[in-house]
Amino acid sequence: MMEFTAEMIAGFLGGEVVGDKDAKVHTVSSIEGGKAGSLAYLTNPKYEPCLYTTGASIVLVDRTFTPSQPVAATLVRVDNAAACVVRLLAMYEAAKPRRKGISERASVASGASVGEECYIGDFAVVEEGARIGKGCQIYPQVYVGRGVVIGDGTTLYPGVKIYEGCVVGSRCILHAGAVIGADGFGFMPNAEGGFDKIPQLGNVLIEDDVEIGANTCIDRAKTDSTVIRRGVKLDNLIQIGHNVEIGANTVSSAQTGIAGTSRVGSNCFLAGQVGVADHVTIGNRVKVGSKSGIDKDVPDDEIRLGYPALPGMQYHRAAAVFKVLPELARQVRELEREIETLKKQ
Q1: Which of 93, 239, 245, 309 has the highest local Cβ count within 10 Å?
Q2: For residue 53, what are the contacts with CB-CB under 8 A and spacing of at least 6?
Q3: Looking at beta carbons, which pairs linking 194-202 to residues 24 or more positions away fall under 8 Å?
Q4: Residues labelled as active-site residues
Q5: In whole angstroms, what is the distance from residue 109 CA to residue 248 CA?
Q6: 266 and 248 in contact (C-beta within 8 Å)?
């Protein structure tokens, strides 16, 4: 287990130590859950009271922060505590030993190609013609189909399934249970009142530095590719339909659903449970609030809220009216009674 002293952390982050420069930590914790040997951080002022009671050995704080009470923990003052937390977490992650080697209980086809320093865990299956880059981490019970291509340094957590012919870039992270390349939801009504399946002959193309959450499903295209561009981050339990394209560095929270052949631009943010209808185009840098339903194209740099989704200010004005509808209805009924009385007079 690796240990770091306050002095080492301050040197790495360009900070200064207030307290015991030899204080040691081997893990990271929240400030309210801090224990001896842990590094905590204060990035939100509402948690300041926890600073005076935390059991953490070292706490990161902004350089401008001044405690109002004595602090038992050693402080490391830095220019931006929130940004430094991210750097430290990345350092801890990088310090973890990486697994290597192919398990005897894995099934790797003779015609598959596996790069150097890869790990393939128990009961993983790598089919004929698959190509896996250098330094990949393929955890137990992963399925890599025929002809799949996986770039260098990509991690597939337990139970990931990648269907035939799909492509995953370098440095991607696919969390447990993600399914890449299942058939798109394509059916055509027939004369008997049932549905005929439309063959889905395309694939899924995932570019570099993409992270896909647990149990998220990305369907293969009917033809061509369903495309997830570089740097996209998808949360858990998201459904991406066939022939969808998601632009670079777009982020989506959990339970979003994007129907077939829609386009989402780059640098967009879709909050939780957003629904996007089929054949809709969303521009670049668009923000969509949770539970919103997008059934029409959205231009660049817009905000959409509600169902059906409205432009931001229009939605807020409508919501303000909605809250007083019962009172407005009461007033209308009173006015109707007064009008009836005046008519009788």
Answers
A1: 309
A2: none
A3: 198/222, 200/242, 202/226, 202/242, 202/243
A4: 242
A5: 34
A6: yes
pLDDT for the residue numbered 73: 96
Report which DSSP code applies to 46.
Answer: G
pLDDT in tens, 94-147: 777 788 999 999 999 999 999 999 999 999 999 999 999 999 999 999 999 999
Write the pLDDT tens digit of every residue in 43-96.
999 999 999 999 999 999 999 999 999 999 999 999 999 999 998 888 777 777
Sign of the CA dihedral 133, 136, 138, 142? Answer: negative
Residue 97 neighbours by CB distance under 10 Å? 6
| One-letter amino acid for residue 282 of the chain | I
Q: CA-CA distance, 96 to 82, in Å (whole number)?
A: 22
- 154, amino acid identity: T
> Under a CB-based contact definition with an 8 Å cutoff, are residues 283 and 270 in contact?
no
Burial of 310 (0-12, 13-18, 19+ CB in 10 A): middle
Q: Which residue has the tokens 């009461």?
A: 330
CA neighbor of 61 nearest in space, from 46, 76, 49, 48: 76
Cβ neighbours of residue 42 closer than 8 Å, sequence gap 6 or more: 31, 48, 50, 51, 59, 60, 61, 62, 65, 81
